[in-house]
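A favour, since you know our structure tokens better than I do. Could you add the entry underneath, on a fresh line?
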Amino acid sequence: MVSSPKVTFRMDENIKEQFEAILHDLGMNLTTGFNVFARAVIRHGGFPFEISQVSYRNPYNMERIRHSLQQLDDGNVIVKTAEELGLDDEEDD
């Protein structure tokens, strides 16, 4: 019989709740979800997805988003059509 050792670790409560909700929708509990993940890591010889520091939530982008939202709140908005932006899909005849 294969041994099943107990593994304990800490996780942010909000992340755990979201993770459990998705697993529930997939018909799994937390234990099954982690076992699936562990097997995928073994099968891939690493994470089964890319791990990167590149994120849209870096300080530069977050500041640009805040700035853009402030401009929107202040009414500093320029409206242009797709044609004015050169995005018109129609071909010239």
In short: The two ends are 75 Å apart (CA to CA). The first helix runs from residue 13 to 25. Residues 11-76 form one domain.
